[in-house]
Specification:
- There is one protein chain.
- The chain has three domains: about 170 residues, 2-Layer Sandwich (Beta-Lactamase), CATH 3.30.450; about 100 residues, Signal transduction histidine kinase, dimerisation/phosphotransfer (DHp) domain (Helix Hairpins), CATH 1.10.287.130; about 150 residues, Heat Shock Protein 90, CATH 3.30.565.
- About 25% of the residues are buried.
- The longest helix is centred in the first third of the chain and has 62 residues.
- The protein is about 55% helix and about 15% strand.
- The two termini are about 65 Å apart.
- It is an alpha+beta fold and about 500 residues long.
- It contains nine helices and twelve strands.
């Protein structure tokens, strides 16, 4: 069932029930008031007839000149008085009963004698009446009864008053009320249907917008009007569409980055493989190869193989880094930096680069091997970017509960427009110089991932011709340092 049907049908049913109930109560109240008024009229008329009956009997007694009439004479006088009473459209019949409930005079319409109201128990002398149906269709009578004492003899006077026209009028009013309720219900139903359609029209727009978003139109937005619940829903729909669009764009960017990553990987792997195969063929095909060429060919093959080994190792480390569940343990930053300095000293000496290291005794939660790989890659990048005779400076200090590590080189620097791209895999500012130095564009991407899994951050600040400053921030450990000074997994 549609929402408009769920709103329209119960509201229509409630409106019809309310209108019918109100009409029924109004008709009932009007009916009771009319019958009460008609009953009072009949009682008044009946009391007049009783007074006229008493007066006629007294008049007959005075004519006879006696003190009191006997029962037989009084009954004859009463019959004579009643027979002189003319019947009309209102007074339809009379009945006089003696003390033994025997009819002394009866002009009531058929079947009414058996419907006479009995005297009430608490007021036996009161006048009572009740509504009785007649023999014919549409015939209704108010039958009144009251005790009458004539010459010390009790009698009971009954009269039937025609009220068929009143009942017909009440029936017509009931029919008009039903017709009016029906018309009001139809008019209300139409008005309610228009109102529900008008109120739910924004909801239809929301539904259409949601369908368009589901079909891929992520730029779809709804116009927000007013401050009701539907406006809040439209605003939430816009926020949801924006979130979906942003997420889809992120996924598309990830897919594009992966395609670029695979393409760069294939290119980077193809270059050393081509060199290795080419120089291997040069060694294999000629019958005799001079020692100088053989050494040169072997050197190129060795360098390209080392480059492939470095490339594959960094790729494996970069791919598995995000999915690995690392167990970080507190370790001395000074010890780790000293180990990296020891391993880097021969390479720095070969490149004639001086390494200045100043690190206080700070404790950081880390994976020692990954952290050393982070420092090694940053120092190696600085070495490759620095001309001979320059220096690399590594300093560390504690600041606001963090260990701040600064790695500074005085090399070529990075253009400002390239800073936001250098952390992408395989991205190299100067590809020819990077390949010549044995780089593959994976170092900074790997460093950024390692910093992230250590709950830290890495920032780059570089100027062309002035060098690059890398700032690392890691939370200081709140646990005591591992006294063994090694990886807890070993």
């Amino acid at each position: 069932m549609k929402l408009w049907q769920k709103i329209f049908l119960p509201t229509l049913a409630l409106m019809v029930v309310s209108t019918t109930l109100a009409s029924t109560l109004l008709l009932g109240s009007n009916r009771d008031a009319l019958w009460e008024r008609e009953g009072q009229r009949a009682v008044t008329q009946h009391q007049y007839l009783a007074g006229m009956l008493r007066a006629g009997v007294i008049s007959h007694r005075l004519q006879l000149g006696v003190v009191q009439l006997d029962e037989e004479t009084a009954s004859q006088a009463a019959r004579q008085v009643l027979s002189q009473q003319a019947l009309d459209s209102y007074l339809s019949g009379l009945l006089l009963l003696d003390s033994k409930d025997s009819a002394l005079f009866d002009t009531l319409p058929p079947d009414l004698s058996s419907q006479l109201p009995g005297p009430p128990q608490d007021e036996p002398n009161a006048t009572v009446y009740q509504l009785c149906p007649g023999a014919g269709p549409g015939q209704w009578y108010l039958v009144c009864a009251m005790p009458v004492t004539l010459e010390s003899v009790p009698y009971r006077l009954c009269a039937a008053y025609a009220v068929g026209d009143l009942q017909q009028r009440l029936d017509r009013e009931a029919a008009r009320a039903v017709a009016l309720c029906l018309i009001m219900s139809l008019v209300g139903a139409g008005s309610l249907l228009v109102l529900v359609w008008f109120l739910l029209r924004p909801l239809a727009a929301l539904d259409a917008s949601a369908r368009r978003v589901a079909l891929g139109h992520y730029g779809e937005r709804l116009e927000v009007r007013g401050s009701d619940e539907l406006s809040d829903l439209a605003q939430d729909m816009n926020l949801m569409a924006s979130a979906v669009q942003e997420r889809v764009e992120q996924l598309e960017q990830v897919a594009e980055d992966r395609r670029a990553f695979i393409g760069d990987l294939a290119h980077e792997m193809k270059t050393p493989l081509t060199s290795i195969l080419g120089f291997a063929d040069l060694l294999y095909l000629p019958k005799e190869v001079p020692d100088e060429l053989r050494v040169e060919y072997a050197r190129v093959i060795s360098e390209e193989a080392k480059r492939m080994r470095s490339l594959s190792g960094k790729l494996l480390e970069l791919i598995t880094l995000g999915s690995s569940n690392l167990q970080l343990a507190p370790a001395s930053l000074r010890e780790v930096a000293a180990e990296v300095e020891t391993s880097m000293r021969p390479i720095m000496a070969q490149s004639q680069i001086r390494l200045d290291l100043s690190c206080p005794d700070l404790v950081v939660d880390m994976d020692r091997e990954l952290f050393k790989s982070l420092l090694y890659n940053l120092l190696d990048n600085g070495r490759k970017a620095s001309p001979r005779g320059k220096r690399l400076v590594v300093t560390a200090r504690a600041m606001d509960g963090q260990a701040v590590i600064l790695v500074r080189d005085y090399g070529h620097g990075i253009p400002a427009e390239e800073l936001d791209k250098v952390c992408q895999p395989f991205y190299m500012v100067d590809k020819s110089r990077s390949r010549k130095a044995g780089g593959a564009g994976l170092g900074l991407a790997l460093c950024q991932e390692i910093a992230a899994v250590h709950h830290g951050s890495m920032e780059l600040d570089s100027r062309l011709g002035e060098g690059t400053l890398v700032t690392l921030r890691f939370p200081l450990s709140e646990r005591p340092e591992n006294t063994e000074g090694g990886d807890p997994h070993r």
